[in-house]
Design a protein that fits this description.
The chain is an alpha+beta fold. The chain has nine helices and twelve strands. α5 runs antiparallel to α6, α6 runs parallel beside α9 and α8 packs antiparallel against α9. It is elongated, with a radius of gyration of 32 Å. The protein starts with 5 loop residues before the first strand and ends in a 30-residue tail after the last helix. Pfam families: MobA_MobL (PF03389).
């Protein structure tokens, strides 16, 4: 089924990245960085289904040329810590055809970004079977200019509103809505939701949909990027070690509650003499395995929990069936007792019969007993229907967890098994290794 994934990141020169290199890699092309003279040739790369540049009305003609566009960005941004481009990674619905996926990306990118004055360079990637890719892994990379572009080129000032958290939330919501419209037009019933699992679960509870709430009650998985997958395929031993980071980039870890001194402020001498504060993060004390290993553990936990919850609901359903059967039996017994009541005696001699008042009292008593039993049976049947609905959802989710667990074991996990590479090996933090072994663009 379709799943929602959309992540935003900024391509920064301070991280040693080049917008020209990024564009070449994502488009599967060959581009030359005029600023450095480096040539980036990814023309033999497989899996690039389509690459295209969208420009706003009135943009110069050179903005349609990928090499000219990103070299213009590199030349315009002078600072050593310049933000060169905004990149969006988006999962595409595998249920759609290639033409429908292309129309979907054009619609969303054109309306949400190009219409605001950005240049958008996007590439659609498809799974490569020989690389072991998931056959449903269709996705798009969108590189956006950080400045508006006009007839004379890029604006001198950046549009800061594009960096607001509220804007990112709005873009995510719009992406979910755009996908759902495309899925509906194509005749698919599946839908995506940009909200977190917890937010979706709470919304389901508020509207009284207990079955949907039960299906959403699971731990969210983490994203495993290409470098993390490559590390697992190559059986690369990921090393976790202390790292220095800025004071404003502190990870918040649960291990802090254990009283472990994970961090420490140190002074680092700058290249020009003055020192500046850095924070030392002791990752070996908080890491819990590689990203693939940790994700597999999350899936295993979800699978075990779904089994336990399904078994609980099965026992609950069995008890409700017994309650219903017992109540129906009691109702039948009350009916039989009413039929067996002796008719009321008439006249002065009533030694073997009941008076009319006694007969009516007995009859009312059995009627009330029958009605109570029927109400218990109806309540048990209603609860049973609700429990069976929840159980059906849990069994479906349990099957999905089993499939997901098997796929992770076959595709990504090292020969050592689920937790073969555990504590002492980095979980990634956005990269597959702490030493920069897999430096991407």
């Amino acid at each position: 089924m379709a799943s929602f994934h959309q992540s935003f990141q900024v391509i920064k020169r301070s991280a040693g990245r080049s917008s020209v290199a990024c564009a070449a890699y994502r488009s599967g092309g060959r581009l030359t960085d005029s600023r450095t003279g480096n040539v980036f040739d990814f023309s033999r790369r497989k899996g690039v289904a389509h690459a295209e540049i969208l420009t706003p009305e009135g943009a110069p003609e050179w903005a349609q040329d990928r090499e000219a566009l990103w070299n213009a960005v590199e030349a315009f941004e002078k600072r050593r810590d310049a933000q060169l481009a905004r990149e969006i990674n988006m999962a595409l619905p595998h249920e759609l055809t290639a033409e429908e996926r292309l129309a979907l990306v054009r619609d969303y990118v054109g309306r949400e970004f190009v219409a605001k004055g950005m240049v958008a360079d996007f590439a659609i990637h498809e799974p490569v079977a020989e690389n072991g890719d998931d056959p449903r892994n269709f996705h798009a990379h969108v590189m956006l200019s950080m400045r508006k572009i006009g007839r004379s080129g890029f604006n001198r000032t950046k549009t800061r509103e594009w960096n607001a958290d509220a804007q990112l939330v709005a873009w995510r919501a719009a992406w979910a809505e755009t996908q759902n419209r495309a899925l509906e037009r194509a005749g698919h019933r599946v839908r995506v939701d940009h909200r977190s699992l917890e937010a979706q679960r709470q919304a389901a509870q508020e509207r009284g949909d207990r079955a949907e709430a039960a299906k959403l009650d699971r731990a969210p998985e983490i994203h495993i990027g290409p470098r993390a997958r490559a590390a697992v395929r190559r059986q690369h031993e990921l090393e976790s070690r202390p790292r220095e980071t800025g004071l404003r980039q502190q990870p918040r870890r649960e291990a802090r509650e254990k009283g472990v001194p994970l961090h420490g402020v140190i002074r680092v001498k700058g290249p020009d003499g003055p020192s500046h504060a850095k924070r030392l993060i002791r990752y070996p004390q908080i890491d819990q395995g590689s990203r693939a290993t940790w994700n597999a553990e999350l899936v295993a936990r979800n699978q075990a929990r779904s089994f336990a919850r399904a078994e609980h609901r099965e026992r609950q359903a069995a008890r409700l069936r017994m309650t219903e059967l017992r109540a129906l039996g009691q109702a039948r017994e009350a009916e039989a007792q009413m039929r067996e009541l002796p008719p009321p005696s008439k006249g002065l001699f009533r030694s073997k019969g009941l008076s009319a008042a006694e007969f009516e009292a007995r009859r009312r008593e059995w009627i009330m007993a029958r009605d109570r039993a029927r109400r218990r049976a109806q309540l048990a049947r209603a609860l049973l229907g609700e429990v069976e609905g929840i159980l059906a959802g849990l069994l479906h989710i349990r099957g999905l967890h089993q499939q997901r667990h098997r796929s992770l074991q076959l595709l990504w996990l090292p020969p050592g098994g689920l937790l073969g590479h555990h504590r002492g090996h980095g979980r990634g933090r956005g990269q597959s290794g702490s030493g920069g072994v897999f430096e991407g663009f």
